[in-house]
Amino acid sequence: MNNVNITHERLLKIILAPYISEKTTFLGEKNNQSVFRVATDATKKEIKAAVELLWKEQKIEVKHVRTINVKGKRKRFGRFMGSRSDWKKAVVSIKAGQELNFTNFSTAEAK
User: Fold this and answer.
1) pLDDT over 80 (residue 7)
2) Using one digit for the tens of pLDDT, what is the confidence trace for 18-35?
3) Residue 94 and residue 34 in contact, taking contact as beta carbons nearer than 8 Å
4) Count of CB atoms within 10 A of residue 24's CB?
5) Of 33, 35, 72, 80, which one's alpha carbon is 20 to 30 angstroms from that of 27?
6) Which of 44, 59, 57 is nearest to 92 (CA)?
7) Which string of b and e fits 79-97 if b means at least 16 CB within 10 Å?
8) pLDDT per residue over 39-66, tens digit each?
9) Enclosing H/E stretch for 8
10) Is 37:17 a contact under the CB 8 Å cutoff?
């Protein structure tokens, strides 16, 4: 995949939401990592570029990205068996001394 083809619109659609749990909070405190729910077709390079774009004002630098494909759980809906949809999780490591602030997003990037 060519890096030139990654558009601004595509980068804004990659990160869907932060994923918050007890384990991810521990990762954030100990290893300076953040966990996000991302698009299932996103690559590591796209995730890195999207994080750096969304927190451009804070000048965040990403060290590396790890991705996990989470399989949807099998669930029973009445007498029928179904399954939740699969999704992708990204663990993003930030360089030492930097911190992601989820309250200050650039208003220019949201337009």
Assistant:
1) yes
2) 999 999 999 888 999 999
3) yes
4) 17
5) 72
6) 44
7) eeeeeeeebbebbbebeee
8) 999 999 999 999 999 998 888 899 999 9
9) helix 8-14
10) yes
